[in-house]
């Protein structure tokens, strides 16, 4: 299936880059959030340059939506590179209690210096960075024990920096989600769109849903076919458009004349994938 590259023009990227640079000296470490379904595509390549030598903890978020076996592979991959990474889910609470111990390990030298100066109760601070809709506000609210950061299931909700105090001895600086101006790989743009990091309003959701059908047949054909009552072997011969049409007909999403209601079918497919109702599916593996 031929598709046009997804175009993205983030309006607040320059402001967020400036905020990160200006506020870096105010924090002890940076916590970078990546979507566990797409750890490569959700990693902003500019963050490494902006953060520099500041200690960094990587959190793979939305664990309950991703394939657990693939997520384990990702954590093992990070450990090979001696990077500190945790698998978490801010909704279920999975892995959240491991964040503060990991922060203390990363900052052990600084904490020892504080202790030598008699500053054992000093509060630590972290900057939270990541792409839009990766779960920054949900994590902050989980750690703060209440809704202190605005949370909505759509990108671009947090538009300015916010300081939040938690009960675990860590102050959090929430930064706006930031995307980069150009995707060198079209698949990166598709992955971000499929998982909801790019607003659906600027995309053709029907085309995106057709791309999703092809991707799901590639990474998890059994789950996809089971959800929509498709024959696996027959479906392997179909392209994204035919898969999309077949799903629409199976669900009975038809207009007068027996034509598939493409808008309704597309929205259903994207909603069910993003909510893991098709199953826990990862779009990227460490060695793809």
Q: Care to describe what's here?
A:
- The chain has 288 residues and is an alpha/beta fold.
- It folds into 2 domains: 162 residues, P-loop containing nucleotide triphosphate hydrolases (Rossmann fold); 71 residues, Orthogonal Bundle (Conserved Hypothetical Protein Ylqf, Chain: A, domain 2).
- It is 41% helix and 11% strand.
- The protein contains 12 helices and 6 strands.
- A 6-stranded mixed sheet has the order 3-2-1-4-6-5, with helices on both faces.
- It is elongated.
- The chain starts with 12 loop residues before the first helix and ends in a 14-residue tail after the last helix.
- The N terminus is likely disordered.
Q: Encode the helix/strand succession as letters.
A: HEHEHEHHEHEEHHHHHH
From the helix content, strand content and strand pairing, which structural class follows? alpha/beta
**Main sheet strand line-up:** 3-2-1-4-6-5
CATH class of the largest domain: Alpha Beta
Helical segment count:
12
**How many strands?**
6
CATH superfamily of the largest domain: P-loop containing nucleotide triphosphate hydrolases
């Amino acid at each position: 299936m031929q598709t046009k590259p997804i175009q993205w023009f983030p309006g607040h990227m320059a402001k967020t880059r400036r905020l990160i640079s200006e506020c870096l000296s105010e924090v002890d470490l940076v916590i970078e959030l990546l979507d566990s379904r797409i750890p490569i595509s959700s990693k902003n390549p500019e963050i490494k340059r902006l953060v520099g030598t500041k200690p960094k903890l990587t959190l793979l978020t939305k664990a309950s939506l991703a394939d657990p076996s693939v997520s384990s592979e990702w954590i093992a991959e990070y450990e090979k590179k001696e990077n500190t990474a945790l698998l978490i889910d801010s909704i279920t609470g999975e892995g959240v209690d491991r964040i503060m111990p990991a922060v203390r390990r990363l900052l052990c030298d600084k904490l020892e210096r504080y202790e030598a100066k008699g500053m054992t109760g000093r509060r630590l601070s972290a900057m939270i960075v990541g792409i839009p809709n990766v779960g920054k506000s949900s994590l902050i609210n989980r750690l703060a024990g209440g809704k202190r950061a605005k949370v909505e299931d759509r990108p671009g909700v947090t538009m300015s920096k916010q300081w939040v105090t938690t009960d675990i001895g860590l102050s959090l600086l929430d930064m706006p989600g930031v995307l980069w101006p150009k995707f060198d790989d079209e698949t990166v743009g598709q992955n971000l769109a499929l998982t909801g990091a790019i607003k659906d309003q600027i995309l053709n959701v029907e085309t995106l849903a057709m791309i999703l059908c092809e991707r799901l047949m590639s990474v998890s054909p059994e789950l996809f076919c089971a959800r929509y009552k498709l024959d696996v072997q027959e479906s392997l011969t179909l392209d994204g458009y035919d898969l999309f049409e077949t799903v629409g007909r199976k669900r009975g999403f038809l207009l007068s004349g027996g034509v598939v209601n493409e808008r309704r079918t597309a929205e259903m497919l994207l909603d069910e994938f993003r909510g893991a109702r098709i199953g826990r599916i990862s779009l990227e593996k460490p060695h793809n």
